[in-house]
Write a structure and sequence with these properties.
This protein has 190 residues and is mainly alpha-helical. The chain contains ten helices and no strands. α4 runs parallel beside α8. The longest helix has 27 residues. The radius of gyration is 18 Å and the shape is elongated.
Length: 190
């Protein structure tokens, strides 16, 4: 009988390590130690640390619960707010550590790794497209001013959220998140 694959353990450990420490501060030794496997096992499943970071980005995307945005259980702007509240709760639960893995890796290695930069861009583009869909729904429902440019507004909201995460991590406070919700939902989308 062959040995069981350790790919899942390694991929999950890489995801957790990259999210907690970043790309450059995470070595393959840390990943395999966290996975409880020998270092050589890493290379049985990933050709490089960069490849495991791409897997981590996919896992992170899956954790963002984008289905909240498309569910028809409540009005579009309520779904949009619930999505960002869910993401904010994760930051609070983790003591203002970690932030957004896409933004973190994008800021840290985009100038040094075209593959990671392209994956981060795809991640942000997909997220912005989902936000545009919700904003368009809100306009069609009459809940959002028809003159608002949903493409620019979606990009603004996503950019504001990423800045909010950075500010909250630096400040170790929910104040930047409070400002995000007040400004976006009490002003921009009112």
């Amino acid at each position: 009988m062959g040995r069981a694959s350790k790919r899942e353990e390694i991929a999950e450990a890489a995801f957790r390590q990259f999210h907690a420490k970043g790309f450059n501060a995470t070595g393959i030794n840390e990943i395999t130690k966290a996975a409880g496997v020998p270092k050589g096992s890493f290379y049985n499943h990933f050709s490089s640390k960069e490849e495991s970071a791409l897997e981590a980005l996919g896992r992170y995307r899956d954790s963002l619960r984008f289905e909240m945005l498309s569910s028809q259980d409540r009005p579009p702007l309520e779904r949009l707010r619930a999505h960002f509240e869910f993401l904010g709760e994760d930051l609070l639960r983790n003591g203002f550590a970690r932030g957004c893995l896409v933004g973190n890796l994008g800021a840290e290695v985009a100038d040094h790794s075209e593959v990671i930069r392209a994956a981060a861009k795809r991640g942000f583009d997909g997220w912005a497209a989902r936000l545009r869909e919700v904003l368009t729904e809100a306009q069609e429902a009459g809940d959002l001013d028809a003159s608002i440019d949903v493409e620019s507004t979606a990009l603004f909201i996503l950019s504001a959220w990423e800045g909010t995460l950075i500010a909250a991590r630096i400040d170790k406070s929910a104040a930047p998140m409070d400002a995000f919700f007040r400004t976006v939902f009490g002003g921009v989308l009112r």
